[in-house]
Amino acid sequence: MDLRHLRHFVAVAEELHFSRAAVRLGIGQPPLSQSIQALEAELGARLFERTKRRVELTEPGQLLLNEAREILARAERAAVLTRRAARGEVGELRVGFTAAAPFLPVVPRIIDAYRRAHADVHLTLVELPSKQQLTALADHRLDVGFIREPRFVPDPAAYRFHDVVREPLLAVMRADHPLAARDVVPLAALRDEPFVFYPADFGTSTHEQVFALCAAAGFRPNVAQDAREAFTIIGLIAAGLGVSILPGQLRQVALEGVVYRPLDSADAFTTLQLAQRSGERSPLVRNFTDIVARIAPRIGN
């Protein structure tokens, strides 16, 4: 018994007329009669009472009609879902992001555009530092991730990166700090300042970028206080524990007594990227990256 047999049976059961059922199915009446006979032989049950004047369902036939309709409907649903999955219209997409990424307007725009375009896809958002996102991508625990451009990637061929937006790295300090009076802070002026910053083992690309920036200016930041969250760093700066260098979008955290100042280095910038596995064939990922490319086609958005 296959779906073809069931479609033939349902057509005859609904039409109660072999000729009309054959026309509806687009086949000849003899093949239809043979199909019904084969189905009855396989099931060991007579499905129709046939006379010269009429065709009627038997009791087993009526029971099979209900089941056959459900089976055919489920088969059609399965086919539709499979086709939609192949187009990336259903399923689950796991998206990583850094803690500060949602403060960049482009990231909420991308997420909102994807949700509107693919409402039946379950979007799972996972907050992770950049390096941990790359590990999660490699382990297939994430599908894509918004990361800070890393200075070093252990296996560059394993990933593809799309630049989403570039932003400045800013000096962050208390409003009463002597350097806060300047419009632009010389990077070298932070040489002897205590820093509030991410621990080296936390996995943020910002840590690598800031330490490389300071090294180019001839010093290593004196980290007096570790903190794993940008908001904690800013709060501790407000408490007088030191200064920091953070991505520009965090100036939206308008904490009383804290100011953000540009640095005098042309290299004081950071790039948010979308990372994915190389050779990724998932239609879910393809649809997401298409939206990213449309909304953020080049640096500067």
From TrEMBL:
Put simply, this protein is called DNA-binding transcriptional LysR family regulator
Protein species of origin = Azospirillum rugosum
InterPro entries per the record? LysR_HTH_N, LysR_subst-bd, WH-like_DNA-bd_sf, WH_DNA-bd_sf
Has keyword Transcription? yes
Q: Does the keyword Transcription apply?
A: yes
Q: Which family does it belong to?
A: Belongs to the LysR transcriptional regulatory family.
- Alphabetic keyword roster: DNA-binding, Transcription, Transcription regulation
Judging by the UniProt lineage, the source's domain of life is Bacteria
Q: Which residues form the HTH lysR-type domain?
A: 1-58
MF annotations from Gene Ontology = DNA binding
Q: Which Pfam families match?
A: HTH_1, LysR_substrate
